[in-house]
Amino acid sequence: MDKKSRAHLKNLDQKLVILLRDLKNYSDAKLNEQPKEGGWSVLQIMQHLMKAEAGSIAYIKKKLSFEPSLEAAGVKSSLNSIMLNLALSSPFKVKAPAQISGDNLLTDLTFWDVAKQWKLQRKELVTYLESLPADLYEKDVYKHPMTGKMTLASMLSFFNTHVDRHTKQIKKTLKQIDAVKQL
Prior knowledge:
By secondary structure, the protein is mainly alpha-helical.
């Protein structure tokens, strides 16, 4: 794995540890509660993030199973990554793909089940990325539905920006539902 991807993964893992630490003392009832103004519960937001990561990796696995001829990463893929991260960093709403939103997000979950599943999924992500040949890190392997082709490092950069965006949403949701930590 290249250094840039490893750094993105390290940041992503740190963000997951912090998020889980910050949420572990809230009741499952509060983490499943949707804001009165509408929107996802905290556990639905977490599912959305997990599904986005899982879907991205599933796409890469399927694509690589066909032994495709991949383009070398260039300016266009760098711009795709920049545009995606700018869009996710903006205050504007970005519509999520149907398969990772709405009715595809479960309700009445437990925090610990979601946390366990996410940690396992992240471990599998790391193992998979470490198994890939080094030359793939210089190619346009990933394709985001909104912006197009980019590198694996850019995909991991997207994951980080995506977590940042939804961490803000989680904090806002906790305020809207008047969630109080259990001690």
